[in-house]
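Extended Data, panel c. Modelled sequence:
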Amino acid sequence: MTIAIDIRNLVKIFDSKKAVNNLTLNVSENEIFGLIGPNGAGKTTTLRIIATLLKPTSGKVNIFGYDLSSEPEKIRSLISYLPEESGAYNNLSGAEYLKFMASFYAKNNDELNSIVSEGSNISGLDDRLKDRVKTYSKGMKRRLLIARALMIRPKLAILDEPTSGLDVFYAHHIRDLIKDYVKKYGVTILLSSHNMLEVQYVCSRVALINNGGVVEEGTPADLMQKYGSGNLEDVFIKVSNLA
């Protein structure tokens, strides 16, 4: 099985604080992998390093065999990244925003139209795509941004709190869409979420990190069995208290 993400002894220091501390994990291709942990555990810093937005202090990160330190441009061509706090261009319509973002990836007009059509379908915004982004609710903006992240069919999609701000209906829709995307297009997903139900439902494997390092890892079912819990939320609480 091909390794999509291979991280070994990753360290990231800000001033004198270790935000990531000897973190080691790997994610297989076509896998939906969840990164969970309490606030300040190092999740977002880890995601930003994988997305090539931060340089590690030390350690090794390989994405589909490319070294993050020496080949970041090759990695960027394979990934998309959706931060928890992300915005779109408020004065563009939703459709204009998707077209603008698609233009960075499309090789011709046919491919551009295909990517935009894919994004429109993912967003589920229908006629509201004609309206300016500044008129959107938080949930609508999130749907547009998820569409932007997935419409290009990246080899690796890094999603930080993908369903933040969405109502139950569209959160469920996005979870199903993520699972279908992996099956249909062979996309690898790395996501972080505070919604344990979401992680339990979507992810094939999970790593719980605390104090910058991995303290537990496995399938949701195996972790629930190991800790005698009926859901991943209870596992999260038990492991966090032990760490």
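The first strand starts at residue 3 and ends at 14. This feature is highlighted in the accompanying rendering.
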